[in-house]
Specification:
- The complex is a heterodimer of chains A (302) and B (268).
- By secondary structure, chain A is mainly alpha-helical.
- Chain A has two domains: 90 residues, no CATH class; 198 residues, MetI-like (MetI-like fold).
- Helices cover 78% and strands 0% of the residues of chain A.
- Chain B is α/β, with parallel strands linked by helices.
- Chain B has a domain of 67 residues.
- Chain B has eight helices and ten strands.
- The chains are: A mainly alpha (302), B alpha/beta (268).
Chain lengths: 302, 268
Protein backbone atom coordinates (compact mmCIF):
# COMPACT_ATOMS: atom_id res chain seq x y z
CA UNK A 1 0.00 0.00 0.00
CA UNK A 2 2.82 2.34 0.88
CA UNK A 3 4.38 2.04 -2.48
CA UNK A 4 1.05 2.42 -4.16
CA UNK A 5 0.09 5.51 -2.23
CA UNK A 6 3.36 7.22 -2.76
CA UNK A 7 3.86 6.04 -6.26
CA UNK A 8 0.95 7.88 -7.73
CA UNK A 9 1.42 11.61 -7.21
CA UNK A 10 3.70 12.06 -10.16
CA UNK A 11 1.30 10.47 -12.53
CA UNK A 12 -1.75 11.74 -10.75
CA UNK A 13 -1.53 15.52 -11.38
CA UNK A 14 -2.12 15.30 -15.13
CA UNK A 15 -5.47 13.65 -14.48
CA UNK A 16 -7.43 16.88 -13.97
CA UNK A 17 -6.82 18.04 -17.53
CA UNK A 18 -8.75 15.88 -19.92
CA UNK A 19 -6.79 16.15 -23.11
CA UNK A 20 -3.24 15.92 -21.75
CA UNK A 21 -4.23 12.94 -19.63
CA UNK A 22 -3.44 10.49 -22.32
CA UNK A 23 0.07 11.34 -23.33
CA UNK A 24 1.92 11.63 -20.03
CA UNK A 25 0.08 8.64 -18.68
CA UNK A 26 0.60 6.60 -21.75
CA UNK A 27 4.26 7.41 -21.58
CA UNK A 28 4.46 6.54 -17.93
CA UNK A 29 2.61 3.31 -18.58
CA UNK A 30 4.81 2.14 -21.37
CA UNK A 31 8.16 3.38 -20.18
CA UNK A 32 8.02 2.39 -16.53
CA UNK A 33 6.82 -1.19 -16.33
CA UNK A 34 7.84 -2.45 -19.76
CA UNK A 35 11.65 -2.54 -19.66
CA UNK A 36 11.83 -4.20 -16.26
CA UNK A 37 10.38 -7.59 -17.10
CA UNK A 38 11.82 -7.66 -20.60
CA UNK A 39 15.49 -7.30 -19.79
CA UNK A 40 16.01 -8.25 -16.16
CA UNK A 41 19.15 -6.57 -14.79
CA UNK A 42 21.06 -6.94 -18.05
CA UNK A 43 20.36 -3.51 -19.41
CA UNK A 44 21.33 -1.69 -16.24
CA UNK A 45 21.11 1.73 -17.77
CA UNK A 46 17.57 1.13 -19.00
CA UNK A 47 16.56 -0.12 -15.59
CA UNK A 48 18.17 2.89 -13.98
CA UNK A 49 16.34 5.27 -16.29
CA UNK A 50 13.09 3.49 -15.63
CA UNK A 51 13.34 3.59 -11.86
CA UNK A 52 15.44 6.56 -10.84
CA UNK A 53 13.58 9.52 -12.43
CA UNK A 54 10.14 8.57 -11.12
CA UNK A 55 11.53 7.96 -7.65
CA UNK A 56 13.30 11.31 -7.68
CA UNK A 57 10.12 13.00 -8.82
CA UNK A 58 8.21 11.50 -5.97
CA UNK A 59 10.94 12.48 -3.55
CA UNK A 60 10.69 16.08 -4.81
CA UNK A 61 6.99 16.10 -4.21
CA UNK A 62 7.30 14.75 -0.69
CA UNK A 63 10.11 17.19 0.05
CA UNK A 64 8.14 20.22 -1.09
CA UNK A 65 5.15 18.96 0.82
CA UNK A 66 7.30 18.58 3.94
CA UNK A 67 8.74 22.09 3.49
CA UNK A 68 5.36 23.73 3.07
CA UNK A 69 3.86 21.78 5.94
CA UNK A 70 6.65 22.61 8.36
CA UNK A 71 7.27 26.29 7.49
CA UNK A 72 3.81 27.74 7.11
CA UNK A 73 0.97 27.59 9.55
CA UNK A 74 -1.46 26.66 6.83
CA UNK A 75 -2.57 23.57 8.69
CA UNK A 76 -1.31 21.19 6.07
CA UNK A 77 -0.25 17.99 7.83
CA UNK A 78 3.24 16.68 7.36
CA UNK A 79 3.79 13.60 5.18
CA UNK A 80 4.49 11.38 8.15
CA UNK A 81 1.33 12.45 9.97
CA UNK A 82 -0.65 11.79 6.82
CA UNK A 83 1.00 8.43 6.53
CA UNK A 84 -0.03 7.52 10.04
CA UNK A 85 -3.58 8.62 9.29
CA UNK A 86 -3.55 6.60 6.05
CA UNK A 87 -2.58 3.48 7.93
CA UNK A 88 -5.60 3.83 10.20
CA UNK A 89 -7.93 4.69 7.32
CA UNK A 90 -6.85 1.70 5.28
CA UNK A 91 -6.76 -0.70 8.20
CA UNK A 92 -10.56 -0.87 8.02
CA UNK A 93 -11.77 0.37 4.65
CA UNK A 94 -15.15 -1.33 4.79
CA UNK A 95 -16.78 -0.22 8.02
CA UNK A 96 -20.18 1.40 8.09
CA UNK A 97 -21.54 3.60 10.88
CA UNK A 98 -24.55 5.01 9.13
CA UNK A 99 -24.72 6.90 5.84
CA UNK A 100 -22.38 9.72 6.84
CA UNK A 101 -19.58 7.65 8.30
CA UNK A 102 -18.37 4.85 6.10
CA UNK A 103 -14.99 3.39 5.26
CA UNK A 104 -12.97 4.70 2.34
CA UNK A 105 -13.59 1.47 0.45
CA UNK A 106 -17.35 1.98 0.48
CA UNK A 107 -16.91 5.57 -0.64
CA UNK A 108 -14.74 4.62 -3.57
CA UNK A 109 -17.11 1.83 -4.58
CA UNK A 110 -20.10 4.16 -4.38
CA UNK A 111 -18.35 6.64 -6.68
CA UNK A 112 -17.29 3.91 -9.07
CA UNK A 113 -20.85 2.63 -9.21
CA UNK A 114 -22.17 6.08 -10.17
CA UNK A 115 -19.45 6.45 -12.78
CA UNK A 116 -20.21 2.99 -14.14
CA UNK A 117 -23.93 3.69 -14.48
CA UNK A 118 -23.54 7.16 -15.96
CA UNK A 119 -20.72 6.10 -18.23
CA UNK A 120 -22.51 2.91 -19.27
CA UNK A 121 -25.62 4.83 -20.28
CA UNK A 122 -23.47 7.35 -22.14
CA UNK A 123 -21.74 4.53 -24.03
CA UNK A 124 -25.09 2.99 -24.86
CA UNK A 125 -26.28 6.23 -26.40
CA UNK A 126 -23.03 7.82 -27.52
CA UNK A 127 -21.39 4.99 -29.47
CA UNK A 128 -24.36 4.22 -31.77
CA UNK A 129 -24.88 7.96 -32.16
CA UNK A 130 -21.22 8.32 -33.14
CA UNK A 131 -21.55 5.60 -35.76
CA UNK A 132 -24.67 7.20 -37.22
CA UNK A 133 -23.10 10.67 -37.27
CA UNK A 134 -19.93 9.34 -38.85
CA UNK A 135 -21.69 7.31 -41.50
CA UNK A 136 -24.27 9.82 -42.69
CA UNK A 137 -23.22 13.31 -43.65
CA UNK A 138 -26.70 14.66 -43.12
CA UNK A 139 -26.67 13.64 -39.46
CA UNK A 140 -23.16 14.94 -39.02
CA UNK A 141 -24.16 18.36 -40.34
CA UNK A 142 -27.27 18.23 -38.20
CA UNK A 143 -25.58 17.42 -34.90
CA UNK A 144 -22.17 19.03 -35.21
CA UNK A 145 -23.38 22.50 -34.17
CA UNK A 146 -25.20 21.02 -31.18
CA UNK A 147 -22.15 19.08 -30.09
CA UNK A 148 -19.90 22.10 -30.51
CA UNK A 149 -22.30 24.15 -28.43
CA UNK A 150 -22.86 21.71 -25.60
CA UNK A 151 -19.49 20.02 -25.29
CA UNK A 152 -17.58 22.93 -23.70
CA UNK A 153 -20.22 23.37 -20.99
CA UNK A 154 -18.86 22.51 -17.56
CA UNK A 155 -20.44 19.25 -16.44
CA UNK A 156 -21.48 20.79 -13.15
CA UNK A 157 -23.68 23.26 -14.96
CA UNK A 158 -25.84 20.27 -15.85
CA UNK A 159 -26.28 19.25 -12.22
CA UNK A 160 -29.22 21.61 -11.46
CA UNK A 161 -31.01 20.36 -14.57
CA UNK A 162 -30.52 16.82 -13.31
CA UNK A 163 -31.80 17.74 -9.85
CA UNK A 164 -34.81 19.42 -11.41
CA UNK A 165 -35.70 16.57 -13.72
CA UNK A 166 -34.84 13.56 -11.59
CA UNK A 167 -35.76 15.03 -8.19
CA UNK A 168 -32.91 13.25 -6.45
CA UNK A 169 -29.23 13.71 -5.70
CA UNK A 170 -28.08 10.33 -6.87
CA UNK A 171 -29.70 10.29 -10.32
CA UNK A 172 -28.58 13.89 -10.77
CA UNK A 173 -24.96 12.85 -10.17
CA UNK A 174 -25.35 9.99 -12.63
CA UNK A 175 -26.91 12.37 -15.14
CA UNK A 176 -23.93 14.68 -14.81
CA UNK A 177 -21.55 11.80 -15.49
CA UNK A 178 -23.68 10.78 -18.44
CA UNK A 179 -23.69 14.18 -20.07
CA UNK A 180 -19.97 14.81 -19.61
CA UNK A 181 -18.79 11.42 -20.78
CA UNK A 182 -21.01 11.14 -23.83
CA UNK A 183 -19.19 13.76 -25.95
CA UNK A 184 -15.77 12.13 -26.27
CA UNK A 185 -17.44 8.88 -27.24
CA UNK A 186 -19.68 10.44 -29.88
CA UNK A 187 -16.88 12.53 -31.34
CA UNK A 188 -14.21 9.83 -31.40
CA UNK A 189 -16.53 7.22 -32.83
CA UNK A 190 -17.74 9.60 -35.53
CA UNK A 191 -14.19 10.62 -36.44
CA UNK A 192 -13.19 6.96 -36.52
CA UNK A 193 -15.98 6.14 -38.92
CA UNK A 194 -15.06 9.05 -41.15
CA UNK A 195 -11.44 7.93 -41.21
CA UNK A 196 -12.03 4.35 -42.21
CA UNK A 197 -9.59 3.99 -45.12
CA UNK A 198 -11.31 4.36 -48.48
CA UNK A 199 -9.52 1.18 -49.58
CA UNK A 200 -11.53 -0.88 -47.12
CA UNK A 201 -14.76 0.71 -48.26
CA UNK A 202 -13.78 -0.01 -51.86
CA UNK A 203 -13.32 -3.65 -50.95
CA UNK A 204 -16.80 -3.60 -49.45
CA UNK A 205 -18.17 -2.04 -52.62
CA UNK A 206 -16.44 -4.46 -54.98
CA UNK A 207 -17.64 -7.40 -52.91
CA UNK A 208 -21.08 -5.82 -52.66
CA UNK A 209 -21.23 -6.58 -48.95
CA UNK A 210 -24.45 -6.06 -47.03
CA UNK A 211 -24.67 -3.16 -44.55
CA UNK A 212 -24.50 -5.68 -41.72
CA UNK A 213 -21.35 -7.31 -43.08
CA UNK A 214 -19.82 -3.90 -43.69
CA UNK A 215 -20.53 -2.98 -40.10
CA UNK A 216 -19.26 -6.17 -38.48
CA UNK A 217 -16.31 -6.94 -40.76
CA UNK A 218 -15.05 -3.50 -41.71
CA UNK A 219 -16.56 -0.53 -39.90
CA UNK A 220 -16.57 -1.82 -36.36
CA UNK A 221 -13.03 -3.28 -36.32
CA UNK A 222 -11.66 -0.21 -38.09
CA UNK A 223 -13.33 2.19 -35.66
CA UNK A 224 -12.58 0.20 -32.51
CA UNK A 225 -9.25 1.92 -31.72
CA UNK A 226 -10.87 5.36 -32.05
CA UNK A 227 -13.84 4.21 -30.06
CA UNK A 228 -11.64 2.95 -27.25
CA UNK A 229 -9.79 6.26 -27.15
CA UNK A 230 -13.17 7.92 -26.75
CA UNK A 231 -14.07 5.53 -23.98
CA UNK A 232 -10.80 6.26 -22.22
CA UNK A 233 -11.29 10.01 -22.40
CA UNK A 234 -14.87 9.57 -21.25
CA UNK A 235 -13.93 7.49 -18.22
CA UNK A 236 -11.21 10.00 -17.34
CA UNK A 237 -13.68 12.87 -17.51
CA UNK A 238 -16.29 10.94 -15.57
CA UNK A 239 -13.84 10.25 -12.79
CA UNK A 240 -12.91 13.95 -12.65
CA UNK A 241 -16.48 15.05 -12.51
CA UNK A 242 -17.80 12.56 -9.96
CA UNK A 243 -15.76 14.11 -7.16
CA UNK A 244 -17.16 17.56 -7.79
CA UNK A 245 -20.67 16.27 -8.30
CA UNK A 246 -20.60 14.32 -5.05
CA UNK A 247 -19.36 17.33 -3.13
CA UNK A 248 -22.55 19.06 -4.18
CA UNK A 249 -24.99 16.18 -3.91
CA UNK A 250 -23.74 14.48 -0.75
CA UNK A 251 -24.47 10.88 0.17
CA UNK A 252 -21.78 8.23 0.06
CA UNK A 253 -18.84 8.69 -2.28
CA UNK A 254 -15.25 9.76 -2.43
CA UNK A 255 -16.21 13.36 -3.33
CA UNK A 256 -18.58 13.56 -0.43
CA UNK A 257 -15.92 12.07 1.80
CA UNK A 258 -13.53 14.87 0.87
CA UNK A 259 -16.16 17.45 1.69
CA UNK A 260 -17.15 15.73 4.91
CA UNK A 261 -13.55 15.56 6.09
CA UNK A 262 -13.16 19.24 5.23
CA UNK A 263 -16.12 20.01 7.47
CA UNK A 264 -14.40 17.96 10.18
CA UNK A 265 -11.19 19.91 9.45
CA UNK A 266 -9.47 16.58 8.93
CA UNK A 267 -6.95 17.71 6.35
CA UNK A 268 -4.83 14.56 6.28
CA UNK A 269 -7.91 12.60 5.22
CA UNK A 270 -8.38 15.02 2.35
CA UNK A 271 -4.81 14.45 1.21
CA UNK A 272 -5.35 10.70 1.47
CA UNK A 273 -8.51 11.11 -0.60
CA UNK A 274 -6.56 13.01 -3.25
CA UNK A 275 -4.12 10.13 -3.52
CA UNK A 276 -6.93 7.61 -3.63
CA UNK A 277 -8.69 9.52 -6.40
CA UNK A 278 -5.45 9.72 -8.34
CA UNK A 279 -4.69 6.04 -7.99
CA UNK A 280 -8.17 4.91 -8.94
CA UNK A 281 -8.09 7.21 -11.98
CA UNK A 282 -4.68 5.81 -12.88
CA UNK A 283 -5.91 2.23 -12.60
CA UNK A 284 -8.96 2.96 -14.77
CA UNK A 285 -6.77 4.57 -17.38
CA UNK A 286 -4.25 1.76 -17.26
CA UNK A 287 -6.92 -0.90 -17.65
CA UNK A 288 -8.41 0.88 -20.65
CA UNK A 289 -5.02 1.33 -22.31
CA UNK A 290 -4.47 -2.39 -21.90
CA UNK A 291 -7.82 -3.11 -23.52
CA UNK A 292 -7.09 -0.66 -26.32
CA UNK A 293 -3.74 -2.24 -27.21
CA UNK A 294 -5.46 -5.61 -27.49
CA UNK A 295 -7.62 -4.26 -30.28
CA UNK A 296 -5.13 -2.16 -32.19
CA UNK A 297 -3.76 -3.74 -35.33
CA UNK A 298 -0.41 -2.91 -36.83
CA UNK A 299 -1.82 -1.64 -40.09
CA UNK A 300 -4.56 0.45 -38.58
CA UNK A 301 -2.01 2.78 -37.03
CA UNK A 302 -0.13 3.48 -40.20
CA UNK B 1 -21.56 -15.12 -75.23
CA UNK B 2 -22.44 -13.34 -78.38
CA UNK B 3 -19.92 -10.62 -78.11
CA UNK B 4 -16.68 -12.17 -76.98
CA UNK B 5 -14.55 -9.82 -79.04
CA UNK B 6 -16.01 -6.86 -77.17
CA UNK B 7 -16.34 -8.43 -73.77
CA UNK B 8 -15.53 -5.12 -72.17
CA UNK B 9 -16.58 -2.27 -74.37
CA UNK B 10 -15.76 1.33 -73.54
CA UNK B 11 -17.47 3.88 -75.74
CA UNK B 12 -16.55 7.54 -75.85
CA UNK B 13 -15.91 7.82 -72.14
CA UNK B 14 -15.01 11.11 -70.55
CA UNK B 15 -14.29 11.70 -66.90
CA UNK B 16 -14.17 15.11 -65.27
CA UNK B 17 -13.54 15.65 -61.59
CA UNK B 18 -14.97 18.58 -59.73
CA UNK B 19 -12.26 20.21 -57.66
CA UNK B 20 -12.03 23.43 -55.71
CA UNK B 21 -10.26 25.04 -58.63
CA UNK B 22 -13.00 24.08 -61.02
CA UNK B 23 -13.46 21.09 -63.25
CA UNK B 24 -10.50 18.87 -63.88
CA UNK B 25 -10.73 16.83 -67.08
CA UNK B 26 -9.02 13.51 -66.36
CA UNK B 27 -10.00 11.41 -69.36
CA UNK B 28 -11.54 12.13 -72.75
CA UNK B 29 -12.45 10.20 -75.88
CA UNK B 30 -11.74 6.78 -74.49
CA UNK B 31 -12.69 3.99 -76.89
CA UNK B 32 -11.48 0.55 -76.00
CA UNK B 33 -12.62 -3.00 -76.26
CA UNK B 34 -11.21 -6.02 -74.51
CA UNK B 35 -11.90 -9.53 -75.79
CA UNK B 36 -12.84 -12.38 -73.53
CA UNK B 37 -9.74 -14.05 -72.12
CA UNK B 38 -7.54 -11.18 -73.20
CA UNK B 39 -4.85 -9.67 -71.00
CA UNK B 40 -4.69 -5.91 -71.43
CA UNK B 41 -2.17 -3.60 -69.79
CA UNK B 42 -2.80 0.11 -69.33
CA UNK B 43 0.47 1.98 -69.28
CA UNK B 44 1.33 5.64 -69.02
CA UNK B 45 3.05 8.20 -66.87
CA UNK B 46 1.70 8.86 -63.41
CA UNK B 47 -1.29 11.12 -63.41
CA UNK B 48 -2.39 10.02 -66.87
CA UNK B 49 -5.63 8.58 -65.61
CA UNK B 50 -4.95 4.90 -65.97
CA UNK B 51 -6.22 4.17 -62.48
CA UNK B 52 -9.20 6.40 -63.20
CA UNK B 53 -10.01 4.25 -66.20
CA UNK B 54 -9.64 1.09 -64.15
CA UNK B 55 -11.97 2.47 -61.47
CA UNK B 56 -14.49 3.21 -64.19
CA UNK B 57 -14.36 -0.39 -65.40
CA UNK B 58 -14.63 -1.56 -61.80
CA UNK B 59 -17.69 0.64 -61.40
CA UNK B 60 -16.22 2.41 -58.38
CA UNK B 61 -16.78 5.69 -60.22
CA UNK B 62 -19.22 6.60 -62.95
CA UNK B 63 -18.16 8.43 -66.10
CA UNK B 64 -19.19 12.00 -66.79
CA UNK B 65 -19.98 10.95 -70.31
CA UNK B 66 -20.01 7.79 -72.36
CA UNK B 67 -20.85 4.18 -71.64
CA UNK B 68 -18.95 1.17 -70.33
CA UNK B 69 -20.27 -2.29 -71.09
CA UNK B 70 -19.22 -5.63 -69.69
CA UNK B 71 -20.70 -8.75 -71.30
CA UNK B 72 -23.23 -6.55 -73.10
CA UNK B 73 -24.50 -4.98 -69.90
CA UNK B 74 -23.83 -1.47 -68.74
CA UNK B 75 -21.50 -1.19 -65.78
CA UNK B 76 -23.67 0.52 -63.19
CA UNK B 77 -21.64 -0.07 -60.06
CA UNK B 78 -18.97 -2.26 -58.52
CA UNK B 79 -19.65 -5.94 -58.19
CA UNK B 80 -17.93 -9.26 -57.59
CA UNK B 81 -18.04 -10.22 -61.26
CA UNK B 82 -15.36 -7.56 -61.81
CA UNK B 83 -12.90 -8.31 -59.03
CA UNK B 84 -10.25 -5.73 -58.21
CA UNK B 85 -6.73 -6.36 -56.97
CA UNK B 86 -5.81 -3.10 -55.31
CA UNK B 87 -2.42 -1.50 -55.44
CA UNK B 88 -1.92 -1.70 -51.69
CA UNK B 89 -3.60 -5.12 -51.38
CA UNK B 90 -6.37 -3.70 -49.13
CA UNK B 91 -6.61 -6.74 -46.93
CA UNK B 92 -8.55 -6.26 -43.74
CA UNK B 93 -5.86 -6.36 -41.02
CA UNK B 94 -8.15 -7.81 -38.36
CA UNK B 95 -8.98 -10.90 -40.41
CA UNK B 96 -6.66 -13.80 -41.17
CA UNK B 97 -5.70 -14.50 -44.78
CA UNK B 98 -8.28 -17.27 -44.81
CA UNK B 99 -11.00 -14.99 -43.48
CA UNK B 100 -10.12 -12.26 -45.95
CA UNK B 101 -10.63 -14.63 -48.86
CA UNK B 102 -13.61 -16.32 -47.20
CA UNK B 103 -15.39 -12.97 -46.96
CA UNK B 104 -15.34 -12.73 -50.74
CA UNK B 105 -16.19 -16.40 -51.33
CA UNK B 106 -19.08 -16.23 -48.89
CA UNK B 107 -20.51 -13.17 -50.57
CA UNK B 108 -20.51 -14.73 -54.03
CA UNK B 109 -21.31 -18.38 -53.39
CA UNK B 110 -23.14 -18.64 -50.04
CA UNK B 111 -26.52 -18.62 -51.76
CA UNK B 112 -25.79 -21.80 -53.66
CA UNK B 113 -23.19 -23.70 -51.66
CA UNK B 114 -22.78 -25.03 -48.15
CA UNK B 115 -20.12 -24.13 -45.65
CA UNK B 116 -17.81 -27.00 -46.53
CA UNK B 117 -17.85 -26.03 -50.19
CA UNK B 118 -17.16 -22.38 -49.33
CA UNK B 119 -14.26 -23.47 -47.18
CA UNK B 120 -12.91 -25.67 -49.96
CA UNK B 121 -13.14 -22.79 -52.42
CA UNK B 122 -11.25 -20.51 -50.05
CA UNK B 123 -8.55 -23.10 -49.54
CA UNK B 124 -8.30 -23.71 -53.26
CA UNK B 125 -7.82 -19.99 -53.89
CA UNK B 126 -5.09 -19.77 -51.27
CA UNK B 127 -3.45 -22.90 -52.64
CA UNK B 128 -3.50 -21.36 -56.10
CA UNK B 129 -1.18 -18.61 -54.89
CA UNK B 130 0.76 -21.02 -52.69
CA UNK B 131 -0.35 -19.53 -49.40
CA UNK B 132 -2.10 -22.37 -47.59
CA UNK B 133 0.66 -22.43 -44.95
CA UNK B 134 -0.10 -18.79 -44.10
CA UNK B 135 -3.88 -19.16 -44.09
CA UNK B 136 -4.27 -18.53 -40.39
CA UNK B 137 -1.90 -15.57 -40.27
CA UNK B 138 -3.00 -11.97 -40.21
CA UNK B 139 -1.83 -9.59 -42.95
CA UNK B 140 0.45 -7.85 -40.46
CA UNK B 141 2.41 -11.05 -40.02
CA UNK B 142 3.26 -11.77 -43.66
CA UNK B 143 5.46 -10.07 -46.25
CA UNK B 144 4.32 -7.55 -48.86
CA UNK B 145 4.52 -10.09 -51.65
CA UNK B 146 2.42 -12.56 -49.68
CA UNK B 147 -0.19 -9.90 -48.97
CA UNK B 148 -0.45 -9.11 -52.64
CA UNK B 149 -0.88 -12.81 -53.35
CA UNK B 150 -3.73 -12.99 -50.83
CA UNK B 151 -5.28 -10.01 -52.63
CA UNK B 152 -5.02 -11.93 -55.91
CA UNK B 153 -6.44 -15.06 -54.26
CA UNK B 154 -9.34 -13.04 -52.93
CA UNK B 155 -10.06 -11.65 -56.37
CA UNK B 156 -9.73 -15.01 -58.13
CA UNK B 157 -11.81 -16.85 -55.52
CA UNK B 158 -14.88 -14.97 -56.69
CA UNK B 159 -14.49 -16.48 -60.15
CA UNK B 160 -14.84 -13.04 -61.67
CA UNK B 161 -15.64 -12.43 -65.30
CA UNK B 162 -12.94 -9.83 -65.31
CA UNK B 163 -9.88 -9.37 -63.12
CA UNK B 164 -8.91 -5.75 -62.65
CA UNK B 165 -5.48 -5.05 -61.25
CA UNK B 166 -4.27 -1.61 -60.20
CA UNK B 167 -0.47 -1.71 -60.19
CA UNK B 168 -0.65 -4.93 -58.23
CA UNK B 169 3.11 -5.35 -57.98
CA UNK B 170 4.07 -1.69 -57.82
CA UNK B 171 5.03 -1.74 -54.16
CA UNK B 172 7.18 -4.87 -54.35
CA UNK B 173 10.89 -5.35 -54.86
CA UNK B 174 12.07 -6.48 -58.28
CA UNK B 175 12.67 -10.13 -57.42
CA UNK B 176 9.33 -10.64 -55.69
CA UNK B 177 7.63 -8.82 -58.52
CA UNK B 178 9.18 -11.14 -61.12
CA UNK B 179 8.10 -14.17 -59.14
CA UNK B 180 4.53 -12.95 -58.82
CA UNK B 181 4.41 -12.04 -62.51
CA UNK B 182 5.37 -15.60 -63.39
CA UNK B 183 2.74 -16.93 -61.01
CA UNK B 184 0.15 -14.61 -62.50
CA UNK B 185 1.01 -15.76 -66.02
CA UNK B 186 0.49 -19.32 -64.96
CA UNK B 187 -2.77 -18.64 -63.08
CA UNK B 188 -4.22 -16.62 -65.93
CA UNK B 189 -3.31 -19.35 -68.41
CA UNK B 190 -5.08 -21.89 -66.20
CA UNK B 191 -8.19 -19.82 -65.43
CA UNK B 192 -8.52 -18.19 -68.86
CA UNK B 193 -9.32 -14.91 -67.10
CA UNK B 194 -9.94 -11.62 -68.78
CA UNK B 195 -7.53 -9.18 -67.18
CA UNK B 196 -7.10 -5.43 -67.26
CA UNK B 197 -3.98 -4.35 -65.45
CA UNK B 198 -2.63 -0.90 -64.72
CA UNK B 199 1.13 -0.72 -64.69
CA UNK B 200 4.00 1.66 -65.21
CA UNK B 201 6.52 -1.09 -65.82
CA UNK B 202 7.33 -1.62 -69.49
CA UNK B 203 8.73 -5.13 -69.05
CA UNK B 204 5.76 -6.18 -67.01
CA UNK B 205 3.38 -4.93 -69.67
CA UNK B 206 5.16 -6.69 -72.52
CA UNK B 207 5.70 -9.92 -70.62
CA UNK B 208 2.14 -10.34 -69.43
CA UNK B 209 -0.23 -8.79 -71.91
CA UNK B 210 -1.81 -9.48 -75.26
CA UNK B 211 -2.46 -5.83 -75.80
CA UNK B 212 -0.79 -2.75 -74.37
CA UNK B 213 -2.88 0.39 -74.15
CA UNK B 214 -0.60 3.41 -74.00
CA UNK B 215 -2.08 6.55 -72.61
CA UNK B 216 -1.12 10.16 -73.29
CA UNK B 217 -0.27 12.52 -70.49
CA UNK B 218 -3.00 14.18 -68.45
CA UNK B 219 -4.92 16.30 -67.96
CA UNK B 220 -7.57 15.18 -70.42
CA UNK B 221 -5.59 12.05 -71.19
CA UNK B 222 -6.68 9.65 -73.83
CA UNK B 223 -5.48 6.47 -75.49
CA UNK B 224 -2.43 7.29 -77.58
CA UNK B 225 -1.71 3.95 -79.10
CA UNK B 226 -2.64 0.31 -78.75
CA UNK B 227 0.08 -2.25 -79.28
CA UNK B 228 -0.62 -5.92 -79.89
CA UNK B 229 1.90 -8.23 -78.30
CA UNK B 230 1.67 -11.41 -80.32
CA UNK B 231 4.33 -13.35 -78.49
CA UNK B 232 3.44 -17.02 -78.12
CA UNK B 233 2.37 -18.37 -74.75
CA UNK B 234 3.48 -19.77 -72.40
CA UNK B 235 6.05 -17.04 -72.10
CA UNK B 236 9.34 -17.38 -70.36
CA UNK B 237 11.07 -14.24 -69.16
CA UNK B 238 14.56 -15.65 -69.66
CA UNK B 239 13.89 -16.86 -73.19
CA UNK B 240 12.17 -13.59 -74.07
CA UNK B 241 15.06 -11.48 -72.87
CA UNK B 242 16.74 -11.56 -76.30
CA UNK B 243 13.71 -12.39 -78.42
CA UNK B 244 13.62 -9.83 -81.28
CA UNK B 245 9.84 -9.53 -81.17
CA UNK B 246 9.90 -8.90 -77.43
CA UNK B 247 12.59 -6.27 -77.81
CA UNK B 248 10.65 -4.67 -80.63
CA UNK B 249 7.50 -4.39 -78.48
CA UNK B 250 9.54 -3.09 -75.61
CA UNK B 251 11.17 -0.51 -77.84
CA UNK B 252 7.77 0.62 -79.15
CA UNK B 253 6.43 1.19 -75.64
CA UNK B 254 9.57 2.95 -74.46
CA UNK B 255 9.54 5.10 -77.55
CA UNK B 256 5.95 6.09 -76.89
CA UNK B 257 6.52 6.82 -73.20
CA UNK B 258 9.85 8.61 -73.34
CA UNK B 259 10.01 10.19 -76.76
CA UNK B 260 6.51 11.07 -77.78
CA UNK B 261 4.98 11.43 -74.34
CA UNK B 262 8.11 12.58 -72.51
CA UNK B 263 6.69 13.54 -69.18
CA UNK B 264 7.11 17.14 -68.22
CA UNK B 265 6.72 17.82 -64.53
CA UNK B 266 5.06 21.14 -64.84
CA UNK B 267 2.92 23.94 -63.65
CA UNK B 268 0.44 23.25 -60.97
Amino acid sequence: MVAAVFHSPLEAPPVPAVAPTTSPLAKAMTSTPAPIPRKPARDLRGLWMAVLPPVMGLACLVLIWQLIASTSNSGIPKPLETWAQAVTVFSDPFYSNGPNDQGVGWNVLASLKRVAIGFGLAALVGIPAGFAIGRFEFLSRMFNPLISLLRPVSPLAWLPIGLLVFKGADPAAVWTIFICSIWPMIINTAVGVQRVPQDYMNVARVLNLSEWKIFTKILFPAVLPYLLTGVRLAVGTAWLVIVAAEMLTGGVGIGFWVWDEWNNLNVSSIIIAIFVIGIVGLLLEFALIKVATLFTFEEVKS
Amino acid sequence: MSNDAKYIDIQNVEQTFKTKKGNFPALRDIHLSVAKGEFVALIGHSGCGKSTLLNLIAGLTTPTQGVLLCADREIAGPGPERAVVFQNHSLLPWLTCFENVYLAVERVFSATENKAQLKARTEAALALVGLMPAAQKRPGEISGGMKQRVGIARALSMEPKVLLMDEPFGALDALTRAKLQDELLEIVARTQSTVVMVTHDVDEAVLLSDKIVMMTNGPAATIGEVLSVDLPRPRNRVALADDPKYLQCRKAVIDFLYTRQAHVEKVA
